[in-house]
Amino acid sequence: MAKEKKQVFVQHITARDEDFSQWYTDVVTQTDLMDYTPVRGCMALRPYGNRIWELIHDELDARFKETGHENVAMPMLIPESLLLKEAEHVEGFAPEVAWVTHGGNEQLQERLAIRPTSETMFCTMFSKWVQSWRDLPMKYNQWCSVMRWEKTTRPFLRTSEFWWQEGHTVHALPEEAQEETLLMLDVYREFCSNVLSIPVFSGQKSDKEKFAGARATYSVEAMMQDGKALQAGTTHNFGTNFSEPFEIRYLDKDGTLKYCHETSWGMSTRLIGAVIMTHGDERGLKLPPLIAPFQAVMLPIAAHKGGVMEKCEEAFTSLKAAGIRVKLDDRDNVSPGWKFNEWELKGVPLRIEIGPRDVENGVAACARRDTNEKFTLPLDDLAQKVHEVLEDIQQNMYASADQFKLEHTKDVFGMEELTQQVSCGYARAMWCGERACEDVIKEETGATSRNMPFDQSPIGHTCVCCGKKASKVMYFAKAY
Amino acid sequence: MAKEKKQVFVQHITARDEDFSQWYTDVVTQTDLMDYTPVRGCMALRPYGNRIWELIHDELDARFKETGHENVAMPMLIPESLLLKEAEHVEGFAPEVAWVTHGGNEQLQERLAIRPTSETMFCTMFSKWVQSWRDLPMKYNQWCSVMRWEKTTRPFLRTSEFWWQEGHTVHALPEEAQEETLLMLDVYREFCSNVLSIPVFSGQKSDKEKFAGARATYSVEAMMQDGKALQAGTTHNFGTNFSEPFEIRYLDKDGTLKYCHETSWGMSTRLIGAVIMTHGDERGLKLPPLIAPFQAVMLPIAAHKGGVMEKCEEAFTSLKAAGIRVKLDDRDNVSPGWKFNEWELKGVPLRIEIGPRDVENGVAACARRDTNEKFTLPLDDLAQKVHEVLEDIQQNMYASADQFKLEHTKDVFGMEELTQQVSCGYARAMWCGERACEDVIKEETGATSRNMPFDQSPIGHTCVCCGKKASKVMYFAKAY
Lengths: 480, 480
Fold this sequence. Notes:
Oligomer: homodimer
Number of strands of chain A: 24
Strand order of the largest sheet of chain A: 3-7-8-14-11-10-9-23
Number of helices of chain A: 15
Low-confidence stretches of chain A: 1-7
Strand content of chain A: 25-35%
Radius of gyration of chain A: 25 Å
Distance between the termini of chain A: 41 Å
Shape of chain A: globular
CATH architecture of the largest domain in chain A: 2-Layer Sandwich
Largest sheet of chain A: 8 strands, mixed
Helix content of chain A: 25-40%
């Protein structure tokens, strides 16, 4: 019976190696993370998906506060004239802006953009708020949704509206802005590694790939199980690119007015797509414990038998009291087999079953989602043991993903090798630094430059594309 | 010196009894809670104001989760056709909607409203998500900002964009929807009392004053220090008003399709305005400890003297470790007097000073913001004592506000009495239930019906306005 249900339950998930893209769609739509809405390209986050985002929020927000940032909330609308102030910036964003033209029954004198990002609004306010060197640094962040009118969209990966955080900071000195840019990049790297169990490539973007208006952009790039790159977060050093048009100046100790140096950095609901494609398998989602809405699910087996429900509830209470996010699934209208498959599909890290024999033996029968390993834990020390198992799952998921990343990254020295490597992973190559070569590589292989690692020890001396002298080490990959 | 600074610091705050409205504006703009932006009627929440909103969020959200609600995130845009589906609803909101007409360079086929509220979007999704009686109840909430194109705006009280939470729930039975509507009203009442230290009038709105599309609306109404009412939160029972046009039906146990019964309820950044106008005084803000970004501020006195800074840092660390939100103000460019006034202005509940003599005596010199009372606390038990003082401040602020509310509420029996009473507070009166009388009262006194208390013990038998037979007890007041 359980077996039969199982087949019914998972039959809709396409195999990853058959059609990775369809596998992704299957997993996303069958796990109640999100749903499509009547607004083109805009999704709704259902409780399960939204809870993951809340947990991501909590972990990231704690890191932002620890590093001295404060949250603010800015208007969602930006007057067109503000958006036009920084030339590169408007060129990058204007084509994908949603425009408000009417308020009530009146036509507005000036169109208002729904923010695609908030540099121009922050800069407008910073120009009021920053007066003296004593006001600096000013390190702000906001949690909100933004809108980019995308032509083709995919749940979590590219949607017209998405939820994110955007940090915006103002500094007196150029080196302080650079330090902030790299600090937040490292916060992102550490967060991906330790919270999402996703190892990343950390480095600097090429000029072609940098943010519209930035002097330098850095990114953390993750590798999906199809070998493609997903940009998980970016940090930007603006120098004075925005502070000059927006006139953000401070009175320095020497009595003169100086332009400020700014940064911005962001991560979004895209991360949920990254988690799915880094860890998921044919049975569905696989969630790292730190962002799992339920870290463990408890299933009574033969719940009608004496002592089972009592023991389950006792164990459930003790886990909850120990701060473990646990779900007691006491539904009586579906079989245990159905429940197994449903919670596997939803990626719950640990399954805990308690049946009559377990009650007798004083144990719980457990199964790990990451390794499928089955084992028992003593009921009288359950919370402590579950904590240890969850910690181990968190680390093991990182280790597996890191292993995959290593196996799918290769040094390449010519276009043929590059083409082959980016069909299944990342290629590390020497690059001359010319945009022309990036364009050729994109044209011929579909791959883009991802970033330049901080370790720039050369692996050769000639550009992988043009063969001319090259001193830059660059990662190339196809990307989401 | 401190005295002179003090005069400088507070001279901009108008006296409350001179011009309450100007007093409010002075306090709001001088405490760094918010700022005006280039978008008409839209404010920015600065770190201090945003932190208050975060703390309100955390307290409310915990209550929503405890009562079985889950958070979701819906699109910010709503197609015009959806907004039109419920007749009363569209009539209520259409005149104040901001419309998106263009995406990128293309004109949209259908206009999209920036959500003024999300009933129509929730209902659209509920009609997909609700199938069987097993899916019910579905109890969701979202935290977001909404947009209402207001003609005249005031910080926190009425802004075009504001931040809020909106709960939306679906139930099988009418009595379940009614139970939810009253449960959340009571959550709001308890939250106002225990977290904001604001006593409220809890009751049902008249038909005239109910939400566009609701069968019944309930509210919690606070009293500001000018005697005017501020609607702090509302809960609505929709019955099947939305489920019919949106076709939200469930397959019941008896095999038939039935319409669901729905509720919604919301609280917003308006609450920050309520806190300011309930508790503030001539020296500025007065924040209840539970939502104060800093519950205590620690000031070193003669910081250069031996042992002072060490003792301050030690005490600071012990308070932090005990979970108290404390700020150590070690600025050396302003005097202690300046700091006193700045933190008083910002409403920090407790000031803690440590100077050379305090170090010698093993005490800290404290001052309460609510009573201005000064006292010392032993340094070796500081965290525990501070906890107790904060708890006392929280309760005392409630008691003071409750006393004010009692003193400014009066039973009235005729129009003259009513007119006089609503010039300084709430009037409780018998009302015939006719809208015509509400209109006359509004016209003649400027007051509106606020709500009907659950205790409907009659205080008379004739309508305060028309003199006809009356059985309803109603509160009237001028309102924000």
